[in-house]
Amino acid sequence: MRRPVPRLIVFPLAVAGAVLFGAFLDHWYFRESPSRDTIEALPEQLTPEEALAELRHGNRRYITSHRLRSIDTAHDADDRRRLAQGQHPFVALLCCADSRLSPEFVFDQKPGSIFEVRNAGNVVDDDVMASLEYAVEHLHVPLVIVLGHTGCGAIAAVHNAGDTPLPHHLRALQEHMRGIRPESLRHLGRHDSELLDRLALVNAKFQAEDLMNQSEPIRQAVKAGHSRLLYGIYHLDSGIVELEDLK
Asked: Most buried in the list 4, 122, 127, 153, measured by CB within 10 Å?
């Protein structure tokens, strides 16, 4: 007669089996990167319209929690080797340095797709303009975007300061955001989120206008139809990006 296996042995074996099975599911089901068949490769050259459509599709994937490109880790080594040979971004993006805004996630893109320039308040200074001109002249990006965001601390600081100069190097930031001043002065003493978010969009448009007015390479690329210049705002709560062409 076969002797029963003691419970003290069966229980630990069952627990160990469950742990191993759970780890297997976690690795192969929950964490497996999408295949190359799932992610359609982007061509090296996109028209401005195709580039904008890809950003819109990527943002849709992000806001619906269906990112694909930005979670593909299985091909990191291949991508590094490919990118070491050269870069072909399809958008040059000026956005705020705010830690809550991650362009690769927001637009669901892989490294090598977005030529990013970031600073507080997404302002156009000489360094930013030189970087974006490089992207247009040498990398031939079909899109240039200035992106503000809701809940921007830089916008709030400049608005709250009013006529008072901000301390230290923040004064330079204040000067570059002079485009929001007329709207800000009309609402002195008001600090609600609706106003500040409207100022963030006004600032993004002003910075885009600065690019168009001061940069000959960007102006010529837009005039020739090689690139489009847009501005917009990223909503922190919903993840939605709204973009407009600079008229």
From this structure: 122
